[in-house]
Amino acid sequence: MEEKLKGIFIKVLGSYDSIKKQQEYERWDSFAHMELVSEVESRFGVALTVDEVVSIESAQDILRIISSKNGKNH
Amino acid sequence: MEKTINSFLENSSKKNPEKTAVIFELEKISYSHLNDESDKIRNYFCSKCKKGERIGILLDNSIEFIIAYFGILKAGCIAVLFPTNISDDNLLFEIKDCQPSFLIYEDKLDEKMKRINAQKHTILLKKSAKNYISEENKTREVFSEDACSIIYTSGTTSKSKGVLLQHKNVVRATENIKEFIKNDSSDIFISGLPLSHSFGLGNLHSSIFAGGKFILERNFINLKRVLDNMLENNATILAATPATLNMLVNEHKDYFRKKAIKLKGIITNTGPISKELVNSILDDLNKTNLYYYYGLTEASRSSFINFRREKEGIGSVGKASPNTKIEVRNGEICINGKHVISQYWNDEEASKKIKDGWLYTGDSGYFDDKGYIHITGRVDDIINVNGEKVYPEEIEGIIKSLGIAQDVAAVGAKDNLFGEVVHLYVVSPNKSIEEIIKSLNGKIESYKMPKKIIIVKDLPKTDSGKIKRSMLRK
Predict the structure, then answer these.
(1) Which residue pairs from A22-26 have beta carbons closer than 8 angstroms and sit at least 24 positions apart in sequence?
(2) What confidence tens digit (pLDDT) does each residue in B73-127 have?
(3) Please, are residues B463 and B470 in contact by the beta-carbon 8 Å criterion?
(4) Minimal Cβ distance to B446: which of A29, A51, A54
(5) Minimal Cα distance from B253: which residue of A?
(6) Count of CB atoms situated within 10 Å of the CB of B434
(7) 3-state class (DSSP) for residue A38
(8) At what angle do helices B31-48 and B5-15 cross, to 10 degrees?
(9) pLDDT per residue over A49-62, tens digit each?
(10) Nearest-angstrom CA–CA distance, B53 and B33
């Protein structure tokens, strides 16, 4: 799962670090945020709620959200 | 004495030294502290630079940004405001263009500085080093005619152009805001707009001028947190783009309503606002004024409307601000007033847009029979992505320089959230759509990235070979 997310981060933000926060990334602005969400939704086949979308501040946040969704599905 | 931007801070600091001027996350700074800290930066730059030298600020929203900005102005220097999401190519071009003596930059942009070899062109000052202060008192006289800042906007080619603002332009625009929305020292602004842009910075000027409090947010990504801060700090004026308001109304409706009980006004601009969005806000927040203004970095806050009071003006951008003249000449909106710039930085060609004090905006529009101004589009092909101006030629130029396709056209397509987004038509590409996106990543700013790429056999063109964009826009 993390490898797939890493690919998305590299594509949208140019780099990946699981603990780095949004404000520490060179290219993570509000446009990139929307792009990131849309890539995560299509590549992982999940739909994020509005609260989940606004709560994302790091790759770890996304991994946590996807894990909780996968947990619910099984 | 004629007003300058730095006099806003100095006056408010004299009147209410202990009052909180700015809150940012867990930090608070009083007027006197903000004034004293910016004096230390003034001292430093007074000793290092002559009047009128450029000093770049490449910082995210933060208290350090505000201190540096006022310090630079007090030193009689010109603050060049670079957005931190700027592409490498544009940053390098702009640094070469305005030749800042110093550049204060965000630590996270260390790699970017190396990639563009920035130290070859300017002296780099890292934010965390805090080595651009001096306790030794040095002052300089600053006048309203002096230049205060340069903000770059997209140009018709890959070349961006520097909007050269004088203190008098910004003072007039700030007075226009105050005259219209009547904010005073009791008001508390909240904004997550970037301070490197005219809209975000203008709200800060307005708050400091009135001696109010300013809640600065890093951005608007976490809207729930912004709403929590809004109520917690009793904010009275929210400044946000139509895209952000759209998300608040459509995605956080109840939460927004609950947290907006103290809001006296919302101020918005940068792009078209739909009648549906205006009516939703007026219905949901039945005591809040909704101010909308029209302006460009070159002529900020040129018209105003309060949709709460002037419902007949919904769909328009209001009427000319005080001391501002607006005319429609050959279908193009033209603006005259003390807030209009006199010239662009180092760009004679672009400066031809200003004739006898009148700025030819490139926006097309008309006056209705009640005197309201309506913007109908552009006389050129500019794409407006949430207030960020994108020239198609810039994106097309990059695609061509990368040798990706035989031919290419970028056009604006309507988008519910951002107003417009970029769509790209490519002829015989030698790369997949995924690879084209990958090639553009990092080469252009995120808002310029095409949201859709369409492969076509050829492009509709005029006999002279010009792309017929209207046929692609649909």
Answers:
(1) A22/A56, A22/A57, A22/A58, A22/B221, A23/B60, A23/B108, A23/B218, A24/B108, A25/B108, A26/B84, A26/B108, A26/B109, A26/B111, A26/B112
(2) 999 999 999 999 999 999 999 999 999 999 999 999 999 999 999 999 999 999 9
(3) no
(4) A29
(5) A50
(6) 10
(7) helix
(8) 140
(9) 999 999 999 999 99
(10) 26
Q: Predicted ipTM?
A: 0.87
Tell me the C-alpha distance between B37 and B83, whole Å.
23
CB contact under 8 A, A11 and B437: yes
Please give the DSSP secondary-structure letter assigned to residue B313: G
Could B221 and A11 be called an inter-chain contact, meaning their C-beta atoms sit closer than 8 Å? Answer: no
Instruction: Please give the residue of chain A at the shortest CA–CA distance from B247.
Output: A50
Q: For residue A26, what are its two tokens? A: 């060179």
Give exposure, B386-408, as e/b (b: 16+ Cβ within 10 Å): bbbbbbbbbbbbbbeeeebbebb
A17 contacts: CB under 8 Å, gap ≥ 6: A59
Hey, what are B359's tokens? 């700025």
Cα separation of B220 and B107, whole Å?
21
Return the sign of the alpha-carbon dihedral for residues B72, B75, B76, B77.
negative
The structure's pTM equals 0.91
Residue A38's beta-bridge partner residues?
none
- Which positions ≥6 away from B53 have C-beta within 8 Å? B77, B78, B100, B101
